[in-house]
Amino acid sequence: MPTGIIARLLIDKGFGFIRDDGGTEHFFHRSSVRGAVFELLREGQQVEFTVEDSQKGPRAGDVRLIEG
């Protein structure tokens, strides 16, 4: 599973962007977050995720915080 950090977070709009370990940013929607409350996420937190196809191109899915 790819890992990265939450690079940008727009709580009021319900989405954000994850920067993977290679520097690529992936869009994610609040509905993709698992095991955490979207509104409590913060920029800089480490996450793991899957890459899914969407109508607008690849996006992050199954987003989970990495504890530690």
Summarize the structure.
This protein has strands spanning 3-10, 15-20, 25-29, 46-52, 59-65. With 68 residues, the protein is mostly beta strands.
Helices and strands: which structural class?
mainly beta
Biggest sheet, open or closed, and with what strands and sense?
5 strands, antiparallel
User: What is the strand arrangement across the widest sheet?
Assistant: 3-2-1-4-5
Overall mean pLDDT stands at: 95
CATH superfamily: Nucleic acid-binding proteins
Task: List how many beta strands DSSP finds.
Answer: 5
Q: Regarding quaternary structure, how should these chains be classified?
A: single chain
Spans of at least 5 consecutive residues whose pLDDT stays below 50 are: none
In what range is the share of β-strand residues? over 45%
CATH class type: Mainly Beta
Percent of residues in helices: under 10%
Whole-Å distance between the termini? Answer: 17 Å
Overall tally of structural domains: 1
